[in-house]
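Suppose a colleague, Dr. K., hands you the sequence of a protein chain of 305 amino acids and asks what its three-dimensional shape might be. Before reaching for any lab equipment, you can write down a predicted structure in token form. Begin with the sequence itself:
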Amino acid sequence: MPEPRSIAIVGGGLMGAGIAQVFIAGGHHVTVFEPSAEARGSIRERVAADLRLLDRDESLADAVATTANLAQAVAQADLVIEAGPEKLEVKQSIFTQLVALSPSRAILASNTSVIPIHRIAAGLPTNQRILGTHWWNPPALIPLVEVVQTDQTSVECVRWVMELLTSVGKSPAHIVKDVPGFVGNRLQHALWREAIAMVGEGICDAATLDACVKNSFGLRLAVLGPLENADLVGLDLTLDIHRTIIPELNRDPGPNPFLEKQVAAGRLGFKSGVGFRTWSQPQMDDLRRRLKAHLLHAQRHGPLK
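The predicted structure, expressed as tokens, is then:
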């Protein structure tokens, strides 16, 4: 896609600003709609910070347009990305407005983490131009964007978005079936469900569980995906292991009661300083710093070939 495109982002929070950085660095025209004056006023500063982190020209952030007028934000858009709150009714309201206000050519995408796109698009006309683009936090450093089609999404829209994302350095993944959580979050939260259950059952404490992941299969994941691993060790061995382990895994149909008790007690993690573990401010800052340094190194150097 040699010519610049007009990208409108609905929501200027953490994800919206990060997505804006990716597209402005890719040479596109970016407008961010954000109703909060405080958040709107810091968008360019946050985009510039991401550009500095990536050793890019931070003055590119000056080209990001911001507005509190949704119609103005989407008036010329080729692609609109909704990055609002993770609430179905809010997203449905936003998309109702986007269908009415955006050009008929514009592709309308939601950055929802888990909500099926067909639920957001239910009852709206021009469903063929509505799809999901699930970005991962932080957008500047995580390559994956899940491109989620519904039964109504046109193949042309999917292909156009995949090509655009590839052109700005992302690694788009085409998700053919529109299910809750798509692919990445279904896998991630399957792991979290078992982890929470084990801690809740007293099998080990939270620090031990995290260490078991980080010091074993977590080290391999950047190079060896789960199905590659199964092929590597052999499907016959995988089957034998599953005959023993699968019946023992957590099967709770909803959130684990241990997690519900934690939230009810105000143990919210970083937000309260106590979650599965107790966190001081220096510990929180250090974890964020180490995560950012790890992701930046991975982006610059990638896994060993």
